[in-house]
């Protein structure tokens, strides 16, 4: 502590107290560790002291409420030995799913609210308060380890608060099993997880165990609790190491409540203040009749309860207490029927025939391996080609598939099980459209069979939004008739939209609004058109008869459909698609699961069981995975459910042959694509994008070819409560006002330079920061313009894209160490795993590498990241690599410097980008645009305009590099044919760029690029309409097809130009210092390049001077000391030239140009452009541009 005071100048420094930052940080860490160990030891000692008094459990009426926070409540239990036991109760366990909590910071109290209104009478829990409360404390039976070694070995099982004076109301909160829902099944056990990949039986058993606990966790948080009632005629018996209780109960149930098999039961055995709680499930519930007790109608049941494995030890240990006349009472918790069905389906996986071809396990029997070798493809090559070349239906506006997409499509049609990994922007939806259309065209019985006899395709997605997106694309972009496509929503959504089907005790989903133009494809809408009016009239008399008629109409509609679209969970829970126990109303030939990485593995597998022959799984496990809503589930089960199905599949090399990775992305600018490709996709992503014209943003991008920026903002973070929070997790959200201010400044700069608000999106991991950014935007740019900018969390906007993405990471100063920050390089010095985990906790959810990947890959043209570089780098290796990469590209700036540059920048007010740019603007190419692959359009302009940087391909001589000769060399400005059919300057290409080979349509990939500046032998070849400058070793394409070395070309030879054959009028050979780009292609094949006309282009890379006369050495001066005048008044002076004495720089007067003299060596294009920009000359789009293209 003295060292800390000296460090912050709070005390006079002593010599031995002047520690370095690293030594001080180490001392603080040791002190914190000692304090934590001491506190934990004292807690364990108090727990052990209480163990002998908790036999079996105890009701405490003098408990005290300690500290109250937004997420936890401390309950203090007094003791005769003066050892106070402190137990934590999560606020989420108090609320469940039926009420929300409102935390007041000033009074440090929590008020519980049910729905939108407070409870009647209101319940407030205040700090250091002695309320009228009775709580039950007991041992935690869900802990598989010795009780004295666990912090949660003793817990609060139930809390009962009395209402205000004068009222008889009381509030009971069963917090014990809400914190540990494993009490109803078995202790968390994944010790046999490694065996799951070997045997299907073990796979089924483990996932059934996990899913059972997940279902119970959701049930205990619901409101489906029955009143507690006495147990009559209890009879205990044991079988197979499991205890059973047979008894009779009389219980008053609500209108829609009933007791069913597999519902949960909580049995209480009480003697005085001693209580033992046992939990289990109902094995059998038999209704015996109704009667009235004290004027209240009650239902009588004869039930059998099976105790859980977790409670088996408690029953064995306290057998005397249970049998010694303890008062028995019980209450029940209803479980949704369809959730029970999912558990039964998981247990029945080994007997599910459609999964025999799905490699859920890597170890295969000899018979299975032999069957796989002898298995014929589902379709022959001829059938696949027929389905692709002559499909029954068409995909409108499709530009064709690339090689990997075509490979994935053919594999999906021929193999019974395939996986497709689609990184961001690689065209997964386009592939799915083609796959579904081809699968429909290749279905058996395409000719000569009626639609109702035809096999169907089931298309699943993890969410309703994703399923509706697929439905919209299929209906809008394909020629499949609308009545052949059916969308199946859940029963709860159907009832909200007018369905007459009554489905009780089923899982309810949050409200979802069906879009108007998609409603006609919904199953319930089609059924309403088919259902006979007489069937609707029987609703008031017989609901069961209506349900039977409704189900028959559903089956009729589905059998007439080619394509059925639904969610993964709804595919096996909806009774129209699966009755359970192997009964299916309709059959499906193929199952296509989209965005499989966002669904849990049980959902993917159970959805796949509906397919009889073909399963295609599409997704990207490097992006955000499934979200488990049951946060009270144990962490091991949560981790298992959050691991995507695709991720586990590709971990085994044997399954990689079934997977195809799409590697051509059509979304991101190359500079934005570079880091995600390297960090998350093993540098496999290629660029296949050609972007439209966009305004220049000189104030944002520090570098010409980099369209990304990281702003180091060290403003502190703060806790804030989200006004719309409905859970305890949302109340601890974070915000950073300093980062929000920078976000507003960036958005304002984009809007003022002509960007549309619809092209901008702001992403952040925290909801409170989302609200803070919205407030800052409204005050900075106005409410109208701020409303057009999309602001949301990364999870909510996964799958979307925008031209410009702004990221706010919020995390700044660690919550535990407010005054000491970590070193940026701390993560890279071989830190221990414990230290890495501790630092990762300091940045919370931001340390999730999948979240970072999703956030970085939403941008198409520009990416701005805002965060504390030091804190983020010390907490995540991925952030360290990202910031190191940006710093190496000089794209890392500090907050103050960036804001100062924005204030000092001056640019004219640009017009709105609501209308597309003109053809004149599209024909302008600049170094910035070249780097971002802005294409020159093929529509020529008739108006003769300024020279600027117009590219004319009508006067170019072709030059070909030979194959098999290693790297090719090109002068700066040489144009190469890109994969999109457009031309790209050689100085703009990068590793991964794809180039078309000469004389064929083969695509070559740039493997390496190096620039050399040295003295080279050059050859200047001229014709009447064309001119080219190459090195002497290049080969020129002659009119006869011969490829002749440039040094051997002579006057009057006939060469091939873009306008046809032409005679050579002049040849100059000389030496000069120039930039030569050495490019290596893979595979090594010839590449044909062209050179733009010098009379039209000078910014594309040739020397800014003319060539030297024959026999002379130019060294950058060329043909004399004079340059061509430009046609734009005031723009004839080029960078690198200085006016002669007595000559003004006003440009041309009366059509006569003034003479400038060149000073110094040749200037490269990048330097020329920088000087041109520094002179403050704006680019004016030329009016006479002709076709040309620049692509990746």
Walkthrough of the structure:
It is a single chain. The protein is α/β, with parallel strands linked by helices and 1192 residues long. Among the domains are: 19-64, no CATH class; 211-310 and 326-337, no CATH class; 402-498 and 516-535 and 544-662, P-loop containing nucleotide triphosphate hydrolases (Rossmann fold); 670-719 and 733-819 and 834-904, 3-Layer(aba) Sandwich (Rossmann fold); 967-1100, Endonuclease - Pi-scei, Chain A, domain 1, CATH 2.170.16. 28% of the residues lie in helices and 25% in strands. It is built from 34 helices and 47 strands. α5 (200-220) packs antiparallel against α8 (337-347) and α11 packs parallel to α12 (428-441). The model is unreliable at 115-121, 447-452, 725-730, 814-832, 834-838, 906-956 and 1093-1192 (pLDDT under 50). Residues 645-869 form the DNA2/NAM7 helicase-like C-terminal domain.
Q: Name the quaternary structure.
A: single chain
- CATH architectural name of the domain at 402-498 and 516-535 and 544-662: 3-Layer(aba) Sandwich
- Global mean pLDDT: 75
Helical percentage: 25-40%
Number of helices: 34
SS class = alpha/beta
How large a portion of the residues is in β-strands, by DSSP E?
15-25%
Fourth-level CATH superfamily of the domain at 402-498 and 516-535 and 544-662: P-loop containing nucleotide triphosphate hydrolases
The poorly predicted ranges are 115-121, 447-452, 725-730, 814-832, 834-838, 906-956, 1093-1192
Tell me the name of the CATH class of the domain at 402-498 and 516-535 and 544-662: Alpha Beta
Distance between the termini: 59 Å
Here the CATH topology of the domain at 402-498 and 516-535 and 544-662 equals Rossmann fold
Quick one: biggest sheet?
A: 7 strands, parallel
The radius of gyration over CA amounts to 36 Å
* Strand elements, count: 47
Query: Numbering strands along the chain, what is their spatial order in the largest sheet?
Result: 19-20-18-21-22-17-23
Query: What is the molecular shape?
Result: globular
């Amino acid at each position: 502590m003295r060292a800390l005071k000296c460090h912050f100048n709070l005390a006079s420094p002593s010599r031995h107290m002047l520690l370095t930052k690293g030594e001080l940080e180490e001392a603080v860490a040791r002190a914190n560790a000692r304090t934590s160990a001491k506190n934990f030891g004292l807690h364990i000692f108090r727990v052990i002291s209480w163990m002998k008094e908790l036999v079996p459990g105890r009701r405490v009426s003098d408990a005290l409420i300690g500290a109250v926070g937004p997420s936890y409540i401390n309950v203090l239990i007094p003791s005769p030995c003066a050892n106070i036991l402190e137990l934590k109760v999560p606020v989420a366990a108090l609320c469940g799913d039926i009420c929300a909590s409102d935390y007041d910071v000033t009074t440090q109290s929590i008020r519980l609210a049910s729905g939108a209104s407070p409870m009647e009478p209101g319940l407030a829990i205040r700090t250091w308060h002695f309320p009228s409360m009775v709580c039950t404390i007991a041992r935690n039976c869900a802990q598989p380890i010795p009780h004295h070694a666990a912090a949660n070995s003793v817990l609060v099982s139930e809390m009962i608060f009395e209402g205000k004076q004068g009222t008889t109301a009381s509030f009971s909160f069963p917090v014990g099993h809400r914190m540990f829902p494993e009490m109803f099944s078995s202790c968390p056990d994944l010790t046999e997880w490694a065996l799951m990949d070997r045997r299907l039986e073990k796979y089924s058993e483990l996932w059934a165990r996990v899913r059972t606990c997940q279902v119970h966790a959701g049930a205990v948080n619901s409101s489906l609790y029955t009143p507690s009632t006495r147990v009559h005629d209890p009879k205990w018996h044991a079988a197979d190491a499991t205890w059973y209780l047979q008894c009779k109960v009389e219980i008053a149930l609500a209108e829609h409540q009933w007791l069913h098999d597999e519902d949960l039961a909580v049995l209480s055995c009480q003697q005085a203040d001693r209580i033992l709680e046992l939990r289990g499930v109902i094995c059998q519930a038999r209704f015996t009749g109704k009667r009235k007790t004290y004027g209240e109608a009650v239902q009588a049941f004869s039930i059998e309860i099976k105790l859980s494995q977790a409670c088996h030890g408690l029953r064995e240990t306290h057998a005397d207490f249970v049998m010694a006349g303890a008062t028995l009472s019980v209450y029940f918790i209803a479980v949704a029927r369809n959730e029970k069905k999912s558990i039964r389906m998981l247990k029945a996986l080994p007997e599910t025939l459609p999964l025999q071809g799905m490699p859920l396990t890597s170890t295969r029997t000899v018979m299975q391996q032999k069957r796989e070798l002898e298995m014929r493809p589902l379709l022959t090559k001829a059938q696949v080609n027929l389905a692709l070349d002559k499909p029954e239906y068409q995909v409108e506006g499709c530009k064709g598939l690339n090689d990997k997409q075509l490979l994935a499509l053919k594999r999906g049609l021929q193999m019974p099980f395939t996986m497709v990994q689609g990184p961001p922007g690689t065209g997964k939806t386009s592939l799915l459209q083609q796959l579904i259309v081809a699968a429909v065209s290749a279905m058996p019985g395409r000719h000569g069979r009626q639609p109702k006899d035809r096999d169907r395709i089931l298309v699943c997605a993890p969410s309703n939004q994703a399923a509706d997106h697929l439905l919209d694309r299929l209906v809008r972009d394909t020629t499949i008739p609308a009545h052949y496509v059916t969308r199946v929503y859940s029963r709860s959504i159907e009832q909200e939209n007018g369905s007459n089907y009554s489905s009780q005790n089923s899982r309810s989903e949050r409200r979802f609004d069906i879009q108007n133009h998609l409603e006609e494809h919904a199953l319930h809408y089609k059924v309403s058109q088919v259902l006979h009016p007489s069937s609707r009239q029987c609703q008031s008399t017989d609901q069961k008869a209506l349900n039977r008629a409704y189900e028959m109409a559903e089956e009729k509609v589905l059998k007439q459909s080619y394509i059925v679209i639904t969610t993964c969970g709804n595919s096996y829970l909806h009774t129209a698609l699966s009755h359970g126990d192997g009964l299916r109303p309709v059959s499906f030939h193929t199952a296509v699961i989209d965005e499989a990485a966002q669904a849990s593995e049980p959902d993917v597998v159970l959805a796949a069981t509906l397919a009889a022959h073909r399963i295609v799984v599409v997704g990207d496990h490097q992006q955000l995975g499934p979200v488990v809503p049951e946060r009270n589930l144990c962490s091991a089960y949560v981790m298992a459910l959050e691991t995507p199905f695709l991720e586990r599949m590709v971990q085994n090399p044997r399954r990689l042959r079934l997977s195809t990775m799409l590697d051509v992305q059509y979304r991101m600018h190359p500079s934005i694509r570079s880091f995600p490709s390297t960090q998350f996709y093993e540098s496999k992503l290629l660029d296949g994008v050609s972007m439209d014209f966009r305004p220049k943003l000189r104030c944002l991008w520090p570098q010409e070819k980099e369209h990304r920026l990281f702003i180091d903002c060290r403003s502190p973070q703060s806790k804030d409560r989200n006004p719309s929070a409905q859970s305890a997790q949302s109340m601890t959200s974070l915000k950073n006002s300093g980062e929000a201010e920078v976000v507003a400044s960036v958005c304002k700069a984009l809007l003022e330079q002509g960007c549309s608000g619809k092209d901008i999106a702001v992403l952040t991991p925290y909801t409170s920061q989302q609200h803070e950014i919205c407030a800052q935007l409204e005050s900075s740019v106005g409410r109208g313009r701020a409303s057009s900018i999309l602001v949301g969390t990364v999870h909510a906007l996964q799958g979307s894209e925008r031209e410009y993405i702004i990221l706010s990471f919020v995390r700044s100063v660690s919550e535990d160490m407010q005054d000491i920050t970590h070193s940026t390089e701390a993560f890279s010095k071989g830190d221990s795993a414990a230290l890495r985990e501790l630092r990762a906790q300091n940045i919370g959810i931001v340390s999730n590498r999948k979240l970072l990947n999703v956030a970085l890959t939403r941008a198409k043209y520009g990416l701005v990241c805002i965060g504390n570089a030091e804190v983020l780098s010390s907490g995540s290796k991925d952030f360290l690599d990202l910031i190191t990469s940006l710093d190496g590209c000089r794209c890392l700036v500090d907050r103050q410097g960036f804001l100062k540059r924005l204030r000092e920048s001056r640019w004219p007010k640009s017009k709105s980008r609501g209308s597309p740019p003109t053809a004149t603007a599209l024909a302008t190419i600049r170094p910035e645009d070249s780097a971002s692959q802005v294409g020159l359009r093929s529509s020529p302009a008739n108006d003769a305009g300024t020279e600027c940087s117009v590219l004319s391909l009508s006067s170019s001589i072709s030059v070909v590099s030979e194959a098999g000769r290693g790297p090719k060399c090109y002068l700066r400005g040489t144009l190469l044919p890109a994969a999109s059919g457009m031309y790209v300057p050689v100085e703009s290409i990068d590793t991964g760029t794809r180039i078309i080979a000469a004389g064929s349509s083969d695509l070559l990939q740039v493997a390496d690029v190096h620039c050399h500046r040295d003295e080279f032998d050059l050859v200047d070849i001229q014709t009447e309409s064309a001119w080219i400058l190459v090195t002497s070793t290049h080969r020129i394409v002659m009119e006869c097809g011969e490829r002749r070395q440039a040094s051997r070309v002579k006057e009057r030879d006939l060469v091939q130009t873009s306008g046809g054959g032409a005679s050579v009028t002049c040849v100059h050979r000389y030496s000069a210092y120039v930039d030569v780009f050495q490019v290596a292609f893979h595979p090594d094949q010839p590449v044909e390049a062209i050179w733009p006309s010098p009379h039209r282009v000078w910014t594309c890379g040739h020397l800014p001077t003319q060539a030297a006369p024959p026999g002379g050495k130019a060294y950058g001066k060329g043909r004399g000391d004079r340059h061509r005048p430009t046609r734009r008044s005031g723009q004839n002076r080029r960078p690198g030239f200085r006016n002669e004495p007595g000559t003004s720089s006003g440009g041309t007067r009366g059509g006569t140009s003034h003479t400038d003299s060149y000073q110094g060596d040749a200037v490269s294009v990048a330097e020329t452009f920088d000087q041109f920009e520094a002179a403050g000359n704006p680019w004016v789009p030329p009016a006479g541009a002709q076709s040309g293209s620049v692509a990746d």
